[in-house]
Amino acid sequence: MPPQSVIGAAALPAGRDAVRSSRHIPARAVCRRRGRPWHPARLRLGVLAFVLCLVPRAAQGQQASMQGIVTSSSTGSPMEGVAVVLEAGGQRVKTVLTDRNGFYQIGGITPGSYTLSGLHIGYSRYELSLTLASGERRTANFTLQLAPVELKGIVVTPERGAAVRDLGRQVVTPAEIRAVPVPAGSGDLATYLQTLPGVTTTGDRGGQLYVRGGTPAQNLALVDGIQIYQPYHILGFFSVFPEDLVSSADFYAGNFGARYSGRTSSVLDVRLRDGNPNRYRGMLSVSPFLAEGMAEGPAGNGLSWLASVRHSLVEQTSEHLMGALQPYGFDSQLLKVTATNGEAQRCSGMALRTSDRGRLDPAETTSHVEWQNLVVGGHCVTQGKGILRLTEVNVGFSSFDNAAVSRGSSIFRSGISRLQADAHITSMIGTLPLYAGFHISSEGMTSDLTEIFGIAERNSGIFGTDVYGEAGIPLGTRGELRPGLLLTALPIAGAEPRVRMSWEPFGRASEKIQAALGVYRQSLLGTSDLRDVTNVFVAWMTSPDDIPMQSVQGSLGWQQSLGGGVNWSIEGYFKRMRDIPVPAWNALPQFTTRLVLADGRTHGLDARLQWNRPHFYGFLGYGYSWTEYQVTQPEFVGWFGDSVQSYHPPHDRRHQVNAVASADLAGFKASARWQFGTGLPFTQPLGFDEAFDYWAHLWDPGHTLGTERLLLDRPFNGRLPTTHRLDLSLERSFNLPVGQAQLQAGAVNVYNRRNMFYYDLFTARRADQLPRAPYLSLTLRSK
Amino acid sequence: MGDGIPGNPPGRHSGTGFVLPWGRRPRARSARRLAGLLALVLATGGSACDDSFTPLAPGAQRFSVWGYLEVTRDTQWIRIGSLRSTLLTSGDSLPVQATLEDLTDGEIIHLRQTTVRSDVISPLDSTGTTVHNFWTTVPIRPGASFHFRARGDVANSVDAVIRLPTDYRMEVLLGQSWNRTRSDSLVLIGLHYVAFVTATTVTVDSCGDASADQSYAPVSDSLSDPHSTPLFRPTPGRGCGPRYVVGRTLSVVGSGSMWPQGSGSNMGDVAPGNITNGVGFLGGTLSKTIPYENCDYASNTLNDPYCRLRYDSTTVTLMGRVWDPLCGNPVPRALVTLQELEPRAPEVAKIRSIYTDADGRFWMSALVPAMHYAMTVHRNERPAILTGSPGQEFYDYQTTVVFTSGQQATHDVDLLGHDFLLCPTR
């Protein structure tokens, strides 16, 4: 049972200053010995002093500590971002925020009487008076009640939004997802992510996201802790994460912590919403692009469930609405069951299936691409009893199969399946938060690449194990240093040190410097034909010669809240990538599984400005990125005179601007999104010629015809035209006896810009993606 | 984290009001800058409305040139085309002047153009394909070098240097029965580049003739001189009774320069070749095809694992046909044997043998001039229906032959049968 809420302040055992001084004086006293000349003995003492500076309170075992989980009364789910404040005599002693599991922990508390408060916007304040004894480890779980009216006085809410990140982590909430117009009844995480600087797409179709110079195969996507290989649908607006299913998502554009392994570019860690444990609810929505339904409710004995079905309709409606067939289709089905045992234990099981198919060139009826995901997994969070600890365990299976048929002749198939088990512990030693865990996985890959001139089949598998640890080391009262180490035993042993830092130079939490530096390795490779930016086929394989891809990446940024709901941030980053597998260059446009290893460099800058008011949300993002690969191939010598060629890969979008605005106007909600991107690199053809194969025959040109072929120039020496697009939507909600109806009208690509396109070099035919697409959607939500 | 509420708006957090580090006026200025930036972005987006797309790499028109100069051919053909933006070809003649300049004496050979409309229809061009052939009948000699040049109307030109190999010699080493490996070898003497070598074996059995090829890839680097290449005796696999090897030939295409390496789907790996300012390949070749029959020593006194056959301008080639004059038919599967009668000591007599093909023809080469050979033609078959057991159908033919240096000799043989009433039906 959660402790009873008590409104009012408790008596203070000591003032705020007394509490602070008891914690900090010993450490500072040692640190101040820096001014003397150094000699070896003093150097050793200095190292010891430095360690003591970083870990000043770890050994103070007589102090008390607390932990707890905060849940919402309306959903029964853990609440992230709740400010848990420990006060003594009206003075704040300590404030921490709950994490993604609603978990908080406070260490280094001087024994005495305190008031513990829990605060979150939209919820009533929770207060608890308590007295902590020496060495006591108190667990205080509590539930926040929804507040029908806006809170007066201090409104504590962690700043959220695209311009706010904490140690590289950006928390995406359904409300932010909703602010970006999508031609469907609900927002979608895929569309939202595309508005972020540093995130690039190479087309409106295919659902490939490139983050800060990385490729889609270098991104890690997790759904309730289980990996999903392709979380985006073939129509770029949509992912398997619609607004109604997402509880929240953590997005790292780079420099993620040691908790995440096996990828080098970005992390998208999505937590699905639990089903409502109190009542049944449902949602139905239909638009020309999509029909979807969602239902949830209690199942007794602490169980709840959530089910969702989505089916695309654009293939059936596009000819009428857009004047051109959009031959794409996708389906997805999700079922999630959650079981809770108080706040201390929560387990969920989830099954997700997706299926996508389509023709990237609508006119080429003999070509198509298709893929399927299947994800089944379980996720358990358990709070320790009598000790400060939260344990997360994930066990799951994930598979991904994709196939591409080109002109009825070339068939490529590739599949990958994965069994995984991982555990993560959040704990505390003294005042030092510790994060540790391990991953075990087994992945099997198959590929069947039948080409005109032969067949290449490959089966392989890898077994992976790693352990990691991270510590949250306070930097005085103004920041935190989060060093971590990931040690991989299999498939290729190695160490990945990573460190992240947050620093408040002026002592105000609204102004932060954030920096990070780390090593990242990836042994599992996803290979695509880079020459065709619309090609979404991915062949998964192990790294050649057991050389893992590796990157060293760093970032330095500043973020600031200007008040009035305005936040801005700027962050520069760099990456040095080694042994990136890329398809070998060939003068002929054909898919190849021959890989060569490239070295890459990326640097860039993200700038974000966000204005968040009760009736207005605005976001402006600018991303500058520069990525270059360097490849050595003997074939280059004959064609270009040098075996080393440097080029900008096809996702190297130099400048990108995104503007999103959403406002409530006279009962309507109007949303707009404008995006602009400079052209992406592509490999220009030299032209067609007729060639003779003189390898084993002296074909006589006087009496025989050669073979027609298309020759390509240097890799990625051309740039596609710039792209820009405006999407608008207008929404009105109506209250119904059983719930709410939401009518939305809008248009994608309002001024009908010819943006990304498929270009058939053999026929000189251009197939533009996504013309102007008006839509009308209706969504019904039960109470 | 430290005390305080992370992310709390500064004004509220401090309770004393909020002041930007750089004061209020710059804040207004930064707002104007922001508005200016937004206007700039919008203007940039608005002006970037050119969505036209030209996929081809910019630059002068390039030519694609393919062909080779072959010493043994009467007419030399070179295909010239321009790199096109589509698969479609133009029926017009190519506005190109092509020449070959002999780098030894400076003589200019003007190549003549022939435009050919082929009926071969590409998947995307139902009207056929037009190609442009440039040709000359000027004799090409071994060891010559030429500068090829093609000039177009728009001042672009392509060049290439074509080098032909000097005349070269070959030896074939045939493994003897006491040689454990029994593998054969080809030895090239005086040749630095090989385009390719093809070994062909023709067999005859009750189902008829069959042949199998074994190709050897070009060697990328310059060859050592002499250069030895192992040969494998390909055998057509077919189950139609006893098989007789009626012919083995080696086709060697010697090149004056490095030969392209790619093939089939790997054609993209082929470097643009030796065409300056263009793509393609122009080679110079001297092709030789030699018979590659059996050779055994009459005795093993030398203990030489190989029977060596030397092919050059002095050795003799013998061709002929074995004929059944009574029936008026060629005699297939007859064993033609030439045994050296007076080998120069300490050499041991070589026995050369080959079976006649379905037309009764045989071909033997690398015979030594001035050497006397005992020639025997033997047909060791007799239909069992007559005798109850297989036997000899024809009388053996025996004679002595001698050749002069470099001779291309012909020797037809009439083989008399035991019973002319047993003429086979052809």
Task: Explain what the structure shows.
The complex is a heterodimer of chains A (783) and B (426). Helix content of chain A is 7%, strand content 54%. The longest helix of chain A is centred in the first third of the chain and has 16 residues, at 16-31. Chain A has a 22-stranded antiparallel beta barrel. In chain A, strands 9-14-15-12-13 form a five-stranded mixed β-sheet. In chain A, strands 1, 4, 7 and 8 form a four-stranded mixed β-sheet that branches. Chain A is mainly beta. The model of chain A is unreliable at 1-61 and 150-158 (pLDDT under 50). In chain B, a hairpin with a 5-residue loop joins strand 1 and strand 2. In chain B, the strands form five sheets. Chain B has an eight-stranded mixed β-sheet with strand order 5-6-2-1-15-14-11-12, with no helix packed on it. Chain B has three domains: 63-162, Immunoglobulins (Immunoglobulin-like); 169-262; 313-422, Immunoglobulin-like (Sandwich), CATH 2.60.40. In chain B, 8% of the residues lie in helices and 42% in strands. At the A-B interface, strand 3, strand 32, helix 6, strand 40 and strand 41 of A face helix 1, helix 2, strand 1, strand 2 and strand 6 of B.
Q: Count all strands of chain A and give the number.
A: 47
* Broad structural category of chain B: mainly beta
Q: Give the overall silhouette of chain A.
A: globular
Task: Please state the second-level CATH architecture of the largest domain in chain B.
Answer: Sandwich
The protein's oligomeric status is: heterodimer
Terminal CA distance of chain B reads 102 Å
How many discrete structural domains of chain A?
2
Please name the two chains that share the biggest interface, counting residues whose Cβ lies under 8 Å from a Cβ on the partner chain: A-B, 100 and 84 residues
**Helix count, DSSP H or I runs of 4 or more residues of chain B:** 3
> What is the highest CATH level, the class of the largest domain in chain B?
Mainly Beta
Largest sheet, spatial ordering of strands of chain B: 5-6-2-1-15-14-11-12
CATH topology name of the largest domain in chain B, in short, is Immunoglobulin-like
Strand composition percent of chain A: over 45%
Cα-atom radius of gyration of chain A: 28 Å
Shape of chain B: elongated
What does the average pLDDT of chain A come to?
A: 84
| Helicity range of chain A | under 10%
Task: Report the structural category of chain A.
Answer: mainly beta
Q: What's the tally of helices of chain A?
A: 6
